[in-house]
Amino acid sequence: MEQFGRLLLFFGLILVALGLVFTFGSRILPLGRLPGDIIIRRDGFVLYFPLMTGIVLSLLLTLLGFLLSRR
């Protein structure tokens, strides 16, 4: 039962961290508006391809996974 409690605390902290990122993240790192994101606007058509945002998120998640796997 103790491990279940720790697991719930861990997921709770993850949810709090995600909430903070969604609330204050655009002030720290302007995801979705980075240089390298592709936006094509035509009459009645908008194509948005967040290339650089995807690369940055991939690097951050890879680093997080690497750091968590070392524990």
Task: Give an overview of the whole structure.
By secondary structure, the protein is α+β, with helices and mostly antiparallel strands. Helices cover 65% and strands 14% of the residues. It is built from two helices and two strands. The chain starts with a helix and ends with a helix. The mean pLDDT is 86.
Gyration radius over CA: 17 Å
The level of helicity is 55-70%
Q: How do the strands line up in the largest sheet?
A: 1-2
Taking the alpha carbons of the first and last residues, their distance comes to 22 Å
Sequence of secondary-structure elements: HEEH
Number of strand segments: 2
Basic shape:
elongated
Structural class: alpha+beta
Q: Helical segment tally? A: 2
How would you summarize this macromolecular structure in one to three sentences?
65% of the residues lie in helices and 14% in strands. It has 71 residues and is of the alpha+beta class. A hairpin with a 2-residue loop joins β1 (38-42) and β2 (45-49).
Descriptors:
single chain, 71 residues, alpha+beta, 2 domains, two-stranded antiparallel ribbon, 2 strands
